[in-house]
Specification:
The chain is α+β, with helices and mostly antiparallel strands and 286 residues long. It has 5 helices and 18 strands.
Length: 286
């Protein structure tokens, strides 16, 4: 078991006072059998009212309403959690799903339909052409081998590019550019899984990087695929690995554009572009 402290700071500086519309925060880690939250606090300036709820996916969501104009918006989340380590490859797939293609049980099929539905159906021809290098109708392949091969191919054949723009690239854009951010690679992988009839979902979270300088961390995005018998298994489409104990999920969703850590807007009588500073510190503590 590891005790981990996460400090996520976001500051917006405006050149003149603006009216802040309600903001939605999805920055609290998801509790589960592998993660227990010891403490959490949210410090926000200017003065505001914060209301928490759980969305349709079970994510913890804070909706923040502001009372006065401001030139600075500061959001600080501090969390201490227990992360119970597990071997990423230590899982069992139901016998019927070991080989691809396979069929889901009827009782699972209805619940999985949203996660099998393409988000970018007009990109299907391009995605199909790309996937022909991994599987063709009539072939049988181990399901995990298929997923692992696609995951590693993204890392091998595409260049990582940090993007500040909101949202995600369409799969066709990523395939054309041969580059993208972590959320773009996750989007491509999820759409590939759904094209094959598998169930995939998008995950936003934190990545602990213990191999680098102490305290370094980042927000990150990856994908999960539902495998009967094993449940939702995470694939990091930026590093080509199965998600392990250095990944801390904040939110899961069906559509990749629905889980930004912080979202909101502001009203200004004149053109007003804010400067933004984000810092994420992740530390293992005693």
């Amino acid at each position: 078991m590891k005790r981990i402290q996460i400090r996520h700071s976001t500051v917006y500086q405006f050149p003149r006072p603006v009216e802040l519309a309600p903001h939605k925060l999805m920055i609290r880690p998801r509790s589960g059998y592998d993660i227990r939250i010891e403490s959490a606090q949210l410090i926000i300036s200017p003065d505001c009212l914060t209301k928490w709820h759980r969305d349709i996916y079970g994510n913890s969501v804070a909706v923040v309403s502001f009372h006065e104009p401001a030139t600075t918006l500061s959001i600080l989340s501090e969390v201490v959690l227990q992360h119970f380590e597990a071997e990423p490859l230590d899982f069992f797939v139901d016998e019927k799903a070991v080989m691809f293609p396979f069929h889901f049980d009827p009782q699972e099929r209805v619940d999985l339909i949203p996660y099998q539905t393409l988000c970018f159906p007009s990109d299907s021809p391009v995605v199909r052409d790309w996937l022909q290098g991994f599987w063709r109708p009539g072939q049988f392949i181990e399901t995990y081998v298929l997923l692992d091969t696609i995951n590693k191919a993204i890392v091998r054949d595409f260049a990582y590019a940090m993007r500040e723009e909101p949202g995600v690239q369409r799969p066709a854009q990523t395939l054309a550019k041969r580059s993208g951010s972590c959320r773009d690679f996750a989007t491509l992988f999820i759409e590939a899984c759904r094209y094959f009839g598998l169930a995939g979902r998008f995950v936003s979270g934190y990545l602990n990087c213990p191999e680098t300088v102490q305290g370094h961390g980042s927000t990150h995005a990856w994908s999960e695929v539902y495998l009967p018998g094993a449940g939702w298994k995470g694939f990091d489409n930026t590093s080509g690995i199965v998600v392990g104990h250095d990944h801390i999920a904040m939110a899961v969703c069906r559509h990749p554009a629905d889980a930004p850590p912080i979202s909101g807007s502001y009203i200004s009588q004149e053109p007003c572009v804010p400067a933004m500073q984000v810092r994420v510190d992740v530390n293992e503590i005693q």
